[in-house]
Amino acid sequence: MTSHKFTVLIPVYIENNYKCVKRAINSILHQTLLPNEILIVVDGRIRDGIKRLLNEYKKKHLHLFTIVYFNTHQGLGVVLNKGVELCKYDIIARMDADDYSLPNRFEEQINVLLEKNCDIVGSYIGEFHEDIDKVYNVREVPSENSEILKYSKKRNPMNHMTVMFKKDSVIKAGSYASIEGFEDYYLWSKMLIQGFKFYNINQCLVLASAGDNLYHRRGGVSYVKNELYFEKKLLQEKHISFFRYLRNIITRIIVRILPNKMRNFIYIHFLRKKQKSK
């Protein structure tokens, strides 16, 4: 790698709201290590207030912000593929427009990425509803590459909004695929199959906006179809065994077809670690 400069890649779409977008971008601007580019890819129509906000940031930080617009909604896979291609720098940090990066996030990650010679580095996330000071759950993920590989056969081993990766590595692996709900998970699987090196920092570096709507999106017939297709791809590419394939689809389909409240309960109480009160 010839440079330690990096780009932050953020997709924005119609469901984002003004307050969250502003909070997310401000968290980037208050980092201990500032990015050299913030690339925002707008996926189709967005709210007028957010469009004005992005233009204000662009005007105030002319050489920092790059804003790319898609005239129509393309979906996350297409948007991120284009975004990765357009990033100016060899290192890319991902972030969502409704999350919050802690002030030391980029400094911590770039140090690990370079010192451990990784292709991708992530971290834990703390989940909140509306108030970032009230984190109620933590999604922990394994740290070492061997653990991440093993874990990836049953669950997503990376928190997508936390990752920092080498641009060339992602492109060589085939970049993001348009499998709604599994764009990132499939990319990690391809990279792991091809031998790219992963690492997760065992602390929360990003606070992620969560709640009923998040878990609501992880259910329904459409989501089940996408998940079945994704699991079949992993089986065909020999990332998982037939036994693991059967086990995954049976356990997942049960969760996907449950009523939203029950699915929320399972995620919160069994798939997350309760945040301890300070």
Query: Main sheet?
Result: 10 strands, mixed
Number of separate domains: 2
Estimate what percentage of residues fall within beta strands: 15-25%
Going by CATH, what is the homologous superfamily of the largest domain? Answer: Spore Coat Polysaccharide Biosynthesis Protein SpsA, Chain A
CATH topology group of the largest domain = Spore Coat Polysaccharide Biosynthesis Protein SpsA, Chain A
Distance linking N and C termini = 41 Å
User: Helix count, per DSSP?
Assistant: 11
Briefly, what CATH class of the largest domain? Alpha Beta
Shape: globular
Output mean pLDDT: 90
The beta-strand count equals: 10
Summarize the helix and strand pattern as letters: EHEHEHEEHEEHEHHEHHHHE
Q: Roughly how much helix do the residues carry, as a percent range?
A: 40-55%
Structural class by sheet pairing and helices:
alpha/beta
> Which architecture of the largest domain does the CATH hierarchy give at level 2?
Alpha-Beta Complex
Gyration radius from CA atoms, angstroms: 18 Å
Which residue ranges are poorly predicted, with pLDDT under 50 across at least 5 consecutive positions?
none
Keywords for this structure?
Spore Coat Polysaccharide Biosynthesis Protein SpsA, Chain A; 2 domains; 278 residues
Question: Gist?
Answer:
With 278 residues, the protein is α/β, with parallel strands linked by helices. The chain contains eleven helices and ten strands.
Topology:
Layout: E1 6-12, H1 18-29, E2 37-43, H2 48-60, E3 65-70, H3 76-86, E4 91-94, E5 100-101, H4 105-115, E6 120-128, E7 137-139, H5 145-151, E8 164-166, H6 167-173, H7 183-193, E9 198-209, H8 212-216, H9 221-236, H10 242-257, H11 260-270, E10 273-274
Parallel strand pairs: 1-2, 1-4, 2-3, 6-9
Antiparallel strand pairs: 4-8, 5-9, 6-7, 6-8, 7-10
Helix pairs in contact: 9-10
